């Protein structure tokens, strides 16, 4: 997948197999960082409209990739917009799930999540009577 015409050709920010790169948010994309349980609920709500999602199983944090600079204000509990001056750890496309990996890998047709749809999905997840804040 990283050979000629593969994902890394199109997405220069994707690291080669077996490596992790720290990529500056705000250049290629921004991310919305959430606790894993909240992110999982949003992924379920978004379905096929969800773009790439990075998962760190050690910190139980996920990052949704959104268009760079498209969000000026983000005011949702338990979430953080990561933009300029933030570096995001990015796994290789086929990283093993025991470490930093993609819950949903980028594809040519799905390279970001619509921030408005993401906000609605996260808001619904936060407001759900079944939602428990991480650590509580």
Q: Keyphrases for this structure?
A:
globular; two-stranded antiparallel ribbon; five-stranded antiparallel sheet; about 20% helix; alpha+beta; about 140 residues
Brief rundown of the structure:
By secondary structure, the protein is an alpha+beta fold.
Largest sheet: 5 strands, antiparallel
Q: β content, as a range?
A: 15-25%
Q: How much helical structure, as a percent, in the residues?
A: 10-25%
How many domains? 1
- Tally of separate helices: 3
Q: What is the overall pLDDT average?
A: 88
Point out poorly predicted stretches.
1-5
**How far apart lie the N and C ends?**
41 Å
User: Which overall shape is indicated by the principal axes computed on the Cα atoms?
Assistant: globular
What is the alpha-carbon Rg in Å? 14 Å
Question: SSE string, helix = H, strand = E?
Answer: HEEHEEEEEH
Strand order of the largest sheet: 5-2-4-3-7
Global structural class: alpha+beta
Count all strands and give the number.
Answer: 7
Structure report:
The chain has about 140 residues and is an alpha+beta fold. It has one domain. Helix content is about 20%, strand content about 25%. It is built from three helices and seven strands. The strands form two sheets. It has a five-stranded antiparallel sheet. A two-stranded antiparallel ribbon has the order 1-6. Strand 3 and strand 4 form a beta hairpin. Helix 2 packs across helix 3. The longest helix is centred in the last third of the chain and has 13 residues.
